[in-house]
């Protein structure tokens, strides 16, 4: 095969150079011409998108008009710098194909992600539908808090990963996004919600028209899904950005506010305090950075990189271990010691047994969180703590085949 090298290549270090791909052809003609192509489920798209495999690592390539790939790459980079859940940009390339000039955006394929169509098509994933709407609301809030306007929030432009029985939403298409310097205006937030509502309802009607979803399908309030996301968004936004007026004696409320936001996964960068006009009260406002509070904590203690809700469950366990060890040794146990104990004696033995159940849609961390749920259920029934080993074994017996399917 004749390889024509692209003219303008910008790639991040640590990734393949992609130079062996058939750049002289538009992406929609790579089928049969490129050994690296992989077929994978994906959302609707206006632009050609292909997936390529380099040593078992997958990348998504999207063909766009000239210069647009560089723009989308820059936006995705700034989202990454703000720790926002979005696909990872790898590079952009300008190519001259038989059909003219084009620019190609390369992103790392988001492993173990579920496109929304799959969530609606698989009966086994039905329980996730409400979580899907919550996850979209959470994603929009995170973007807006970081000053990002999306401009095309839709189910097709979002990917979902399992997160301790719920879902975590990831932005996949930043073509229309803008990063505002400073705060995003109320007008832009409103506009994003309007676009989201129209797109989400459109995406769901689309599933109806293709027969992938039935109108009487329980658990899918099709016509009101967009509205539901808007309401969830507004509640969350209000909770996070609300200014509180406190009495100088009530400074404990500052800690309370930080704890509440951390509990919801938000990391607090600053607490802003200012006097009220009357001078006898304080205005309290928290500035949050991202929604990785437990994730960052767990990572720094154990090196594990998991989703936020999974990390929250694991951090709760580590705190329980800490309390037990402190009680047993009759002295305060540092969290790092408890985390090591948890990793070696609780997580790893259970994870080793669960390993065979891992597949392309689930992770060890997710399976472990399901075992925790199962342990809670078994312990309730038995009226005593059944322990991790028994819960793991029972989980594998009950759900092993289903999890593999
Ligand atoms: N990094 C990635 N990881 C996993 N899937 C991806 C990735 N990039 C793209 N996809 C899949 O390809 C689909 C299309 O991508 P994208 O939305 O960026 O294309 P588009 O043509 O710009 O869409 P639109 O029609 O909204 O403009 C996505 O819905 C997603 O399923
Ligand atoms: Mg798209």
User: Strand-residue fraction?
Assistant: 15-25%
Helix content: 40-55%
Can you give the mean pLDDT? 92
> N-to-C SSE series?
EEEEHEEHHEEEEHHEHEEHHHHH
Please give the count of helices.
11
| Structural domains: how many | 4
Task: Describe the 3D structure.
The chain is of the alpha+beta class. It has 4 domains: 8-108, Phosphorylase Kinase, domain 1, CATH 3.30.200; 116-240, Transferase(Phosphotransferase), domain 1 (Orthogonal Bundle), CATH 1.10.510; 242-288; 293-404, no CATH class. The chain contains 11 helices and 13 strands. The strands form 4 sheets. It has a 6-stranded antiparallel sheet, covered by helices on one side. Strands 11-13-12 form a 3-stranded antiparallel sheet, covered by helices on one side. A hairpin with a 2-residue loop joins strand 8 and strand 9 (166-171). The protein is globular, with a radius of gyration of 24 Å. The two termini are 39 Å apart. Bound molecules: adenosine-5'-triphosphate (ATP) and magnesium ion. Magnesium ion binds next to loops.
Give the helix/strand layout.
Elements lengths: L7 E4 L25 E2 L10 E6 L2 E8 L3 H14 L7 E9 L2 E9 L7 H6 L7 H17 L2 E2 L8 E6 L2 E6 L6 E2 L6 H24 L15 H17 L2 E3 L5 H12 L4 E8 L6 E7 L4 H10 L5 H22 L5 H20 L9 H19 L5 H17 L1
Antiparallel strand pairs: 1-5, 2-3, 3-4, 4-6, 5-6, 7-10, 8-9, 11-13, 12-13
Helix pairs in contact: 3-5, 4-5, 7-8, 8-9, 9-10, 9-11, 10-11
The structure holds adenosine-5'-triphosphate and magnesium ion.
């Amino acid at each position: 095969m004749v390889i024509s090298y692209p003219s303008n290549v910008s790639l991040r270090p640590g990734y393949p150079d992609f130079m062996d791909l058939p750049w002289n052809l538009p992406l929609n003609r790579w089928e049969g011409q490129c050994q690296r192509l992989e077929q994978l489920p994906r959302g609707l798209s206006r632009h050609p998108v292909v997936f390529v495999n380099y040593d078992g690592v997958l990348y998504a390539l999207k063909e766009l008009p000239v210069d647009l790939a560089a723009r989308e790459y820059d936006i995705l980079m700034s989202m990454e710098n703000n720790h926002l859940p979005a696909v990872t940009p790898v590079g952009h390339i300008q190519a001259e194909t038989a059909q003219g000039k084009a620019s190609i955006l390369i992103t790392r394929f988001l492993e173990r992600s579920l496109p929304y169509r799959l969530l609606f098509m698989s009966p086994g994933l039905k329980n996730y539908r409400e979580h899907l709407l919550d996850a979209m609301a959470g994603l929009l809030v995170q973007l807006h808090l970081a000053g990002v306007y999306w401009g095309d929030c839709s189910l097709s432009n979002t990917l979902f990963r399992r997160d301790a029985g719920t879902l975590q939403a990831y932005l996949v298409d930043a073509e229309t996004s803008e990063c505002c310097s400073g705060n995003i205006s109320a007008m832009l937030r409103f506009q994003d919600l309007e676009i989201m509502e129209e797109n989400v309802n459109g995406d769901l009607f689309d599933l109806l028209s293709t027969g992938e979803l039935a109108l009487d399908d329980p658990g899918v309030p099709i016509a009101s899904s967009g509205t539901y996301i808007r309401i969830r968004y507004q509640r969350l936004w209000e909770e996070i950005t609300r200014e509180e007026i406190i009495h100088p004696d009530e400074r404990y409320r500052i800690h309370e506010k930080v704890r509440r936001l951390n509990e919801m996964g938000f990391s607090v960068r600053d607490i802003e305090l200012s006097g009220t006009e009357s001078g006898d009260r304080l205005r309290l406002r928290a500035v949050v950075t991202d929604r990785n509070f437990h994730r960052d904590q767990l990572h720094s203690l154990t090196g594990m990189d998991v989703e936020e809700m999974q990390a929250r469950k694991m951090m709760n366990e580590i705190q329980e271990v800490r309390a037990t060890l402190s009680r047993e040794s009759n002295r305060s146990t540092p969290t790092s010691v408890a985390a090591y104990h948890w990793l070696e004696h609780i997580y790893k033995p259970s994870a080793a047994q669960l390993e065979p159940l891992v597949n392309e849609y689930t992770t060890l961390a997710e399976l472990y969180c399901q075992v925790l749920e199962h342990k809670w259920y078994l312990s309730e029934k038995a009226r005593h703590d059944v322990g991790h080993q028994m819960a793991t074994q029972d989980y594998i017996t009950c759900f092993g085949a289903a999890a593999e399917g």
